[in-house]
């Protein structure tokens, strides 16, 4: 699966880049957009509100884009304008696609298509359809992707050379996947011809790359090696290590099928070097390590076998995250259970050989003793940290009172500050902080003010930045649940994270440890021992 240069994704990214040239300018643009947003809300101009949110999103950190995309959709729906609504869903789909959440991207692209098809906006209709097809390709639904690409192709051929080239390339990839190699060659040749005519040097290398891999599929191994070796220098010049890795992989497979095993292994090792340097992998490249592992087994090299087994574990972890749907369709000679069995056997064999060495036995005994001491000290440290955390938790229950609001201290009107503080108390009392994906913008809405004022008041009267303030409220809430209700002590970290409204389990555990100096797991274990309900 070669990378597709998606016209839809590129246009979206370029828009963001053009509107975000510098941090200072971005802040200025956000302030201007915020003013436009407030005015549009006052006039119930939902089109204006939707567009203002889009501008704010482009000038915000990418981690906040999904929240703004929801706001764009919510206000777009109020317009009853199919174009505005369709583009809103398209925007959210693009964000999910870039995050490799392909199924969620697909859901939003389908909704976008449903609305845009009711308009006369042909470019936007085909842009959404291309995005939908691209996602189908990444999910492995090649026939459906082909149908969608071909629906949009006549329009692109009339209107846009760049989009046409992308579609030719995508169709070539899809036809290769369903083993219609003649059609793959047909679109590669058309694409190469158009790229030369339109002087699109960037795409020439990708059509040559695609056709060389197609030659491998046709079992023309020597031709595949010859052509792939030609494109590698061009890929290196573009710093395209992803497609460079794919080229090495197919050269390696070609040499392997030509029974030139040593040459094959040398190219498979180049794939491993790129993985080491860039952590780039995709489902089909996993097969590289099956060749390398089998070769190490033939050479009876236990250390190398163990190295490649551990590599496969790491790769599977990445694939299950980034390609969780497509990776299931890839045949795996070495599945997890088989890898575990081989790893255990190798480690056992290495241990048995090592036991013969008396000095190593002594080293192991020393190590075990050290580990025991370390374990004892760790348990003691955990107990101390738990007691400190419990004391801190009790301190946190004390409500901070504001004795006096000093006039002009924050460059904010005193009455406004008083209003914000009242709303802040309501926000805390009503546990609004448990909401998921709670951005400063959303908190500002609850406080009935803007983000700037909200952050200033929180910093002054809660002694924290807004993100830390929200995280600490969530953690304190969970601690009280654990102390007072037994059932929560049996919850997983994932369930507790959901209960507190964290976006991920990792974020929850990190924030818990930062807040209390102890992990949730250790805190619960000590709580069960020392304070049974």
Automatic annotation (TrEMBL):
InterPro entries linked to this entry: Homeodomain-like_sf, HTH_AraC, TPR-like_helical_dom_sf, TPR_rpt
Keyword field: Membrane, Transcription, Transcription regulation, Transmembrane, Transmembrane helix
Any one Gene Ontology molecular-function term assigned to this protein's record: DNA-binding transcription factor activity
One Pfam family linked to the record: TPR_12
Transmembrane parts of this sequence: 359-376
Domain HTH araC/xylS-type: from-to ranges: 414-526
Name of the protein described by the UniProt record: Tetratricopeptide repeat protein
């Amino acid at each position: 699966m070669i990378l597709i240069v998606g016209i839809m994704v590129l246009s979206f990214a370029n828009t963001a880049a053009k509107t975000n040239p510098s941090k200072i300018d971005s802040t200025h643009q956000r302030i201007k957009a915020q003013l436009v947003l407030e005015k549009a809300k006052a006039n119930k101009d939902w089109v204006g509100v939707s567009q203002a949110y889009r501008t704010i999103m482009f000038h915000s950190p990418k981690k906040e884009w999904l929240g703004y995309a929801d706001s764009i959709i919510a206000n777009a729906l109020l317009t009853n304008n199919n174009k505005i609504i369709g583009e809103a869903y398209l925007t959210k789909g693009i964000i999910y696609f870039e995050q490799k959440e392909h199924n969620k991207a697909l859901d939003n692209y389908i909704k976008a298509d449903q609305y845009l098809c009711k308009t006369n906006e042909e470019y936007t209709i085909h842009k959404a359809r291309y995005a939908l097809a691209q996602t189908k390709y990444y999910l492995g639904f090649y026939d459906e992707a082909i149908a969608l690409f071909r629906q949009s192709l006549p329009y692109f051929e009339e209107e846009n050379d760049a989009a046409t080239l992308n579609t030719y390339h995508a169709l070539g990839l899809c036809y290769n996947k369903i083993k219609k190699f003649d059609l793959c060659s047909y679109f590669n040749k058309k694409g190469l011809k158009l790229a030369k005519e339109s002087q699109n040097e960037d795409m020439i290398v990708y059509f040559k790359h695609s056709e060389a891999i197609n030659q491998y599929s046709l079992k023309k191994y020597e031709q595949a090696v010859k052509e792939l070796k030609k494109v590698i220098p061009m890929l290196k010049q573009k710093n395209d290590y992803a497609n460079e890795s794919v080229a090495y992989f197919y050269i390696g497979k070609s040499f392997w099928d030509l029974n030139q095993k040593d040459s094959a292994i040398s190219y498979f090792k180049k794939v491993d070097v790129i993985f080491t340097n860039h952590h780039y992998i995709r489902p089909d490249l996993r097969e590289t390590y099956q060749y390398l592992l089998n070769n190490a087994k033939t050479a009876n090299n236990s250390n190398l076998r163990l190295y490649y087994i551990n590599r496969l574990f790491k790769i599977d972890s990445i694939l299950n995250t980034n390609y969780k749907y497509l990776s299931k369709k890839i045949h795996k000679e070495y599945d997890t259970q088989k890898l575990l069995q081989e790893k255990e056997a190798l480690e056992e064999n290495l241990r048995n050989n090592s036991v013969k060495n008396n000095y190593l036995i002594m080293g192991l005994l020393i190590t075990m003793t050290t580990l025991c001491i370390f374990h004892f000290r760790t348990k003691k440290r955990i107990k101390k940290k738990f007691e400190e955390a419990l004391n801190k938790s009790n301190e946190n229950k004390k409500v901070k009172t504001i004795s006096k609001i000093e006039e002009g201290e924050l460059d904010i009107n005193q009455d406004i500050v008083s209003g914000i503080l009242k709303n802040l108390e309501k926000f805390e009392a009503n546990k609004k902080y448990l909401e998921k994906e709670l951005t400063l913008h959303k908190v500002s809405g609850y406080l009935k003010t803007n983000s700037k004022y909200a952050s200033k008041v929180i910093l002054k009267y809660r002694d924290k930045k807004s993100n830390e303030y929200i995280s600490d409220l969530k953690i304190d809430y969970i601690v009280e649940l654990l102390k007072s209700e037994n059932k929560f002590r049996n919850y997983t970290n994932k369930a507790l994270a959901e209960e507190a409204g964290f976006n991920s389990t990792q974020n929850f555990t990190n924030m818990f440890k930062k807040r209390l100096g102890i992990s949730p797991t250790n805190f619960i274990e000590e709580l069960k021992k020392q304070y049974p309900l």
